[in-house]
TrEMBL record:
PROSITE patterns recorded: LIM_DOMAIN_1, LIM_DOMAIN_2
Family annotation (InterPro entries): Znf_LIM
Protein name, UniProt field: LIM zinc-binding domain-containing protein
Gene Ontology CC: nucleus; Z disc
Record keyword Repeat present: yes
Regions that span the bilayer: none
GO molecular function: metal ion binding; transcription coregulator activity
Record keywords: LIM domain, Metal-binding, Repeat, Zinc
Domain LIM zinc-binding intervals: 20-85, 145-206, 207-266, 267-328, 389-444
UniProt keyword annotation of Zinc present: yes
CDD domains associated with the record: LIM (cd08368)
Amino acid sequence: MAAKQQSIGNSEFFVNQPVSYCSKCTSSIDQNHQSNIRFNNRLYHTNCFTCGICHKNLSDSTNTNFTIHNNEPICAQCKQANAKICYACQKPILTGGLITFDTNVYHDDCFRCSQCQKLLTYETKLNKHNSKPCCAACYDKKFAPQCSQCLKPISTDKILTCDTKKYHPDCFRCDQCNRSLADEKDLYEYNSKPCCYQCYNQRTAPECAKCHKLISVGKILKWNENKYHEDCFRCHQCNKSLANGNNYCKHDSKVFCSECDAELFAPRCAQCLKPISTGKILTYDTKKYHPDCFRCDQCNKSLADEKDLYEYNLKPCCYQCYNQRTAPECAKCHKLISVGKILKWNENKYHEDCFRCHQCNKSLGDASNFCKHDSKPFFSECDAELFAPRCAQCAKPIIDKYTAFKNKTFHPNCFFCVKCHRTISSTEKFYEDKFGFVCSTCGT
């Protein structure tokens, strides 16, 4: 079927197109009805041809200026109300071109340098300052950072920074060998200027304490205020590498692995003669022992927890073994005194129970009233009874003072006058008759 052309304003519409539904209400549409409207290749009922925002009917001939928004017709009023605002003049952009810069939009004629107002529409090199466009000349002159190497402005997007200083990518080079540092991840500085890793190491590398060469490459190991090549940090004794371990020790400013340090410098156990490198050290009589090696030399009993220690043949000994091997012989029973109290008398030693009076067999214990006779102990009473001189008068033993006359001994009280029974003193004169002694008084 032939289409009939119809115009509203400046827009053309085609009526009676062979489309079976309305693009607005989606209901069926009479293809033969002359009032149907085609817009933007879509078919509308006359009443459905409305503004997509305010829904005003646009089929009236007075609505001559509308446009497309989201594939729907928009009236002139809504077009202006929804238009983007120019960042420069703050007016809506209704006609003409639209330029976007740094998320902001501009009229073609408003897109100018914020400093000199030069039109930038056809410029290929643009810069930004305070979110506003700036021509290359103004930006370089007023705002571009200065390269610390060539002292020229850096107008490119890429700026390299080292220690707060700015550089062109091509100017960012090693101050020593001129090698480019633009793609380097690790940066170094020498005399306040950028420097590559190799040049930095050559000029600042420390001396290895082992080989005395500069550590210009590779890992630097620090120990005891000295620095080493990784391969030079070795045990002074066995030359084993110590780079990856913590088990090393210092001796005379030299480094040793823990095994060599123990073998060379650790105290030796007096029993097994091996070094005591770890754990507790037990000391006895200036000698060192492993806790498990500190045992009785006679019975092998552990002495690690013993409080009282003994020595036999210059080696540690438990109390029982010490007593068995060093106990004295009892002068009475002739057995060893290995336990209990030892009593000493007259350069002899006795069991406490063996130290008894040789006559009555009573225990002398700690008694002080005993005597010696023929190297045997006696209670003083037994000693007197057996060995003391006898009184010629009473025939009893004389323990203390006595009076002697004609090879006879008397208790002082037994030497008396037979007439008056008065004791005759040692300084007094007396005489003897057939009845006994007579004092000087009774003899006159």
